[in-house]
């Protein structure tokens, strides 16, 4: 696809993509890359007073409150954050696209009803709703991912809904119906391929949102629970050492910011290239 | 059963959200087409002819009336049966760019009817695609290209191949050449004529261009604001048009033949808004021979002779 | 016009009803039995049963919903499991700080965002424009809670310019409002920029410039006046965005608003309080959207009424 080349000609996209790939590599090859186990509490990981050790020769990024190597926890944390981010986003995209597609194609009462429900969902602030759901259901990686997905599918559904209506009104859809195509064939062969660019854009942008949401939930203590590391819960665990051992908050914090930026940048570039009508719409 | 298509009292209303009164696109139309013949439907934009075309194939649901295709009542058909029937009645659209999916290759587009109706096997389908592409004048090498890489005329050829590949009996052509340059128009019309002959097709040919209709159609029906105001065999219509609207349309055809100087009848005003049609005879505000009665009395189609029908208050009086 | 207003208000009411129903449903499907939670671990089955009856938990779903709605309309949001106080009064006592923070945050967002947008538009394509666009992109993408923590560390801990937490003096407002303001300004600056660009393309602006309008300033005044119009409606939407981050922001800055209330409730899994704050936020969002929709047609005559 020539669009691929165009996308990666943009410097910003290249930088963003490189960073994302770096994080992916960390996540996938964590056992090979990490200098230590993320859960091992080293005897010399804490100072005599029991405080975390600053970044230095022995521990590249220092240790945390339990004497564990921060770098290793960070690398394994990438794995957790990405898995949940992608899983949650995948479910949200799947759910949102299907619902938006059906609502947009069927229109009428069913379509309106579905859109009213999404209006309703949008009245709740995402974070609070996620918190509520997470508090109600016992935590596990899957539940956290599901909760995030539940909160995120709405935006995609609305966008897909509007687009589907626009596409379904085009004459080639009428022509396909005239040929005798079934609804299913029209949806898969004609409508969905035209939706694909938009879905890709929102899938990319969505990962940024889900990763952030996971980090926030973990930061609040209701996302991924320690000892499994996630960038969010590293900050959560170490907040009391915020002043004396700021690197424990800074480093995962900066990592989260960069990852969010990278996905947003990539998604923005994708949107510019694939869907010129939405340019400049953040 | 010699009638391939028969419409009876077809009416189509559109409801808009902004007013309570529906827009009547097709008021009351009955017509029939015999096998192997071509019916030309003439009308200006706003006459309802495109709506009628779509209703004919039940691509849009008529508000009331019946459609019979080869004796089969289309309205009562269930979706699955209707879909199967579709392979026998096809439509060629006016704008070949918008009626072809820009993301599909030409090969896939032409093959789509065969895929939908599961004709034979993949290999045979590809052979058929190539054979029909050749028939309409699309090079085999071009089959893997996309619609936007072709000219308007070529795209229309692709649409035509798509329409005829599955062996339909009836083709509805909705302004098939109106979007094309004049020189290309002739090519496409000839292509259609050849195919009509070769594949024994029955045609409904819709256009606003009378000279095209004259060239292509056996019978003509003239539409105005949702109604047929005159219908006759082509020669009869052009030699002795009875309805003042038809007369005005014919007089407007550029005359190249020397000698026969026809007085150009110019109609006053524009075609009215279908949302608010004039009372009585819809044509009366623009009609050069309208009398007071025309504003209150709506005429209906009546026969002047065996094959010539007119809908006009004054013509009835004459006959 | 009247029709539009009435329709929108009706829609808002329906959404509020839906919101209350969802909130109720969430409470209903709690795996944890509230009666057990209130009674405590050592309570006898009889005590638990009587508490259930008292709370009306043995009634069918529909009856419970009606009870819930009746209570809601009287301002009764239930009781905290652990504090034995009414959620409603807890929220009322804490909402002040949240509202005042929101007010100042939006103020700063507007100040920074609008200025940046105007400057970027005027200097289109040049350094300032590029700079502001990059900054606004970062502002829009960066997660609120992390930036808050970082700001807190740099300006309060390291530099000591501001107190680390606390509430009561004006200076306590500065860091939180500034942080939120900077982050939120990204959104406004982008919209203001494109709005300005669109307005400046207009003929009446070009004519004024062609006539050699005394100063670019006059043109700017005209342009700004018109470019600001879409922003007005955005403020209503901003309320929703603020509500979205309120829990984390208040917990990071130690701000005693309803966000921190929710944060404390999270730690103790005190569901009624969490639900109460969620409900109040949702109501605030619906009202914010409603106000935005109602103001917009008045302020911007270009907006067509549905």
Task: Please describe what this structure looks like.
- Chain A is mainly α and 282 residues long.
- Helix content of chain A is 72%, strand content 0%.
- Chain A contains eleven helices and no strands.
- Residues 278-282 of chain A have low confidence and may be disordered.
- With 319 residues, chain B is of the alpha/beta class.
- Chain B has an eight-stranded mixed beta sheet with strand order 6-7-8-3-9-10-12-11, sandwiched between helices. A four-stranded antiparallel beta sheet of chain B has the order 2-1-4-5, with helices on one face.
- The longest helix of chain B has 17 residues, at 182-198.
- Chain C has 306 residues and is mostly helical.
- Helix content of chain C is 78%, strand content 0%.
- Chain C starts with a helix and ends in a 7-residue tail after the last helix.
- The model of chain C has no long low-confidence stretch (mean pLDDT 81).
- Chains in contact: A-B, A-C.
- At the A-C interface, α5, α6, α9 and α11 of A face α1, α6, α7, α8 and α11 of C.
Number of distinct helices of chain C: 13
List how many beta strands of chain A DSSP finds: 0
Query: How far from one another are the termini of chain C?
Result: 10 Å
What pair of chains forms the biggest interface?
A: A-C, 42 and 49 residues
End-to-end separation of chain A in angstroms reads 26 Å
Give a quick account of the main beta sheet of chain C: strands, pairing sense, barrel closure.
none
Q: Based on helices, strands and strand pairing, what is the structural class of chain C?
A: mainly alpha
SSE order of chain A: HHHHHHHHHHH
Shape of chain C: flat
Number of separate structural domains of chain A: 1
Please, what is the CATH homologous superfamily of chain A? MetI-like
Helix-strand string of chain C: HHHHHHHHHHHHH
Number of helices of chain A: 11
* CATH fold-level assignment of chain A: MetI-like fold
- What would CATH call the class of chain A? Mainly Alpha
What Rg of chain C, in angstroms, do the CA atoms define?
Answer: 24 Å
Give the strand content of chain C: under 5%
Estimated helix fraction of chain C: over 70%
| Overall geometry of chain A | elongated
Tell me roughly what share of residues is in helical segments of chain A.
over 70%
Question: Could you name the key traits of this structure?
Answer:
heterotrimer, A: 282 residues, mainly alpha, MetI-like fold, 11 helices, elongated, disordered C terminus, C: 306 residues, flat
């Amino acid at each position: 696809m020539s669009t691929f080349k165009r996308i990666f000609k943009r410097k910003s996209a290249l930088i963003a993509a490189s960073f994302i790939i770096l994080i992916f590599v960390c996540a996938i090859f964590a056992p090979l890359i990490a200098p230590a186990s993320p859960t091992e509490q080293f005897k010399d990981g804490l100072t005599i007073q029991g405080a975390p050790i600053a970044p230095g020769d022995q521990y590249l990024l220092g240790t945390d409150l339990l004497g564990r190597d921060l770098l290793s926890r960070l690398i394994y944390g990438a794995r957790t954050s990405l898995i949940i981010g992608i899983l949650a986003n995948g479910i949200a995209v799947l759910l949102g696209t299907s619902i938006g597609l059906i609502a947009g194609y069927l229109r009428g009462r069913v379509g309106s009803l579905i859109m009213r429900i999404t209006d309703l969902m949008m009245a709740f602030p995402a974070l609070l709703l996620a918190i509520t759901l997470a508090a109600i259901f016992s935590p596990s990686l899957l539940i956290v991912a599901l909760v995030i997905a539940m909160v995120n599918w709405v935006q995609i559904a609305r966008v897909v809904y509007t687009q589907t209506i626009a596409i379904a009104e085009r004459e080639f859809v009428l022509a396909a119906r005239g040929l005798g195509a079934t609804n299913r064939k029209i949806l898969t062969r004609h409508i969905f391929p035209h939706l694909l660019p938009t879905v890709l854009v929102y899938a990319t942008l969505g990962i940024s949102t889900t990763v952030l949401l996971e980090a926030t939930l973990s930061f609040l203590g209701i996302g991924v629970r320690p000892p499994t590391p996630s960038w969010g819960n590293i900050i959560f665990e170490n907040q009391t050492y915020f002043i004396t051992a700021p690197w424990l908050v800074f480093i995962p914090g900066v990592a989260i910011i960069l990852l969010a930026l990278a996905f947003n940048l990539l998604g923005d570039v994708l949107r510019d290239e694939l869907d010129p009508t939405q340019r400049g719409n953040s | 059963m010699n009638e391939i298509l028969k419409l009876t009292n077809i009416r189509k209303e559109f409801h808009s959200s902004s007013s309570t009164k529906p827009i009547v696109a097709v008021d009351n139309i009955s017509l029939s087409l015999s096998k192997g013949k071509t019916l030309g439907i003439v009308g200006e934009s706003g006459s309802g002819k495109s709506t009628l075309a779509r209703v004919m194939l039940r691509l849009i649901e008529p508000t009331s009336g019946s459609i019979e295709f080869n004796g089969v009542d289309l309205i009562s058909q269930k979706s699955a049966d209707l879909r199967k029937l579709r392979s026998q009645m096809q439509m060629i659209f006016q704008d070949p760019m918008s009626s072809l999916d820009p993301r599909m290759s030409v090969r896939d587009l032409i093959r789509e009817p065969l895929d939908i109706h599961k004709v034979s096997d993949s290999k045979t389908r590809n052979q058929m695609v190539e054979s029909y592409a050749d028939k309409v004048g699309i090079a085999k090498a071009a089959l893997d290209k996309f619609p936007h890489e072709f000219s308007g005329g070529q795209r229309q050829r692709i649409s035509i191949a798509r329409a005829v590949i599955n062996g339909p009996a009836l083709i509805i052509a909705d302004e098939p050449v109106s979007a094309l340059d004049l020189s290309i128009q002739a090519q496409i019309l000839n292509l259609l004529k050849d195919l009509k002959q070769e594949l024994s097709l029955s045609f409904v040919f819709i256009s606003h261009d009378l000279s095209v209709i004259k060239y292509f159609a056996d019978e003509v029906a003239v539409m105005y604001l949702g109604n047929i105001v005159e219908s006759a065999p082509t020669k009869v219509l052009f030699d002795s048009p009875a309805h003042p609207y038809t007369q005005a349309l014919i007089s407007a055809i550029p005359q190249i033949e020397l000698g026969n100087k026809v007085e150009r009848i110019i109609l006053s005003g524009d075609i009215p808004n279908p949302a608010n049609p004039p009372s009585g005879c819809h044509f009366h505000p623009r009609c050069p021979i309208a009398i007071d009665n025309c504003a209150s009395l709506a005429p209906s189609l009546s026969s002047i002779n065996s094959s010539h029908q007119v809908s006009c208050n004054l013509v009835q009086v004459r006959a | 016009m009247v029709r539009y207003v009435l329709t929108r208000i009706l829609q808002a009411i329906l959404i509020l009803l839906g919101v209350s129903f969802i909130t109720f449903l969430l409470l209903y499907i709690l795996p944890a039995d509230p009666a057990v939670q209130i009674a405590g671990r050592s309570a006898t089955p009889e005590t638990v049963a009587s508490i259930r009856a008292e709370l009306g938990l043995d009634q069918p779903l529909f009856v419970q919903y009606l009870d819930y709605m009746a209570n809601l309309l009287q301002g009764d949001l239930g009781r905290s499991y652990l504090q034995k106080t009414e959620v409603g009064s807890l929220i009322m006592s804490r909402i002040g700080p949240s509202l005042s923070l929101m007010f100042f945050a939006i103020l700063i967002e507007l100040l920074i965002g609008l200025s940046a947008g105007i400057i970027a538009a005027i200097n289109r394509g040049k350094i300032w424009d590029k700079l502001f666009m990059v900054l606004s992109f970062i502002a829009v993408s960066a997660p609120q809670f992390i930036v808050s923590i970082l700001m807190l560390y740099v300006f309060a801990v390291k530099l000591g310019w501001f107190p680390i937490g606390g509430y009561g003096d004006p200076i306590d407002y500065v860091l939180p409002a500034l942080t939120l303001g900077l982050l939120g300004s990204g959104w406004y600056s982008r919209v203001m920029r494109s709005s300005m660009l669109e307005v400046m393309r207009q003929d009446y602006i070009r004519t004024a410039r062609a006539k050699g309008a005394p100063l670019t300033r006059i043109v700017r005044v005209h342009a700004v006046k018109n470019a600001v119009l879409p922003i007005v409606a955005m403020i209503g939407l901003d309320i929703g965005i603020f509500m979205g981050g309120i829990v984390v922001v208040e917990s990071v800055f130690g701000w005693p608003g309803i966000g921190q209330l929710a944060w404390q409730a999270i730690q103790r899994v005190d569901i009624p309080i969490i639900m109460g704050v969620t409900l109040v936020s949702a109501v605030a969002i619906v009202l914010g959207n409603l106000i935005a929709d109602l103001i917009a047609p008045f302020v911007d005559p270009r907006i067509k009424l549905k």
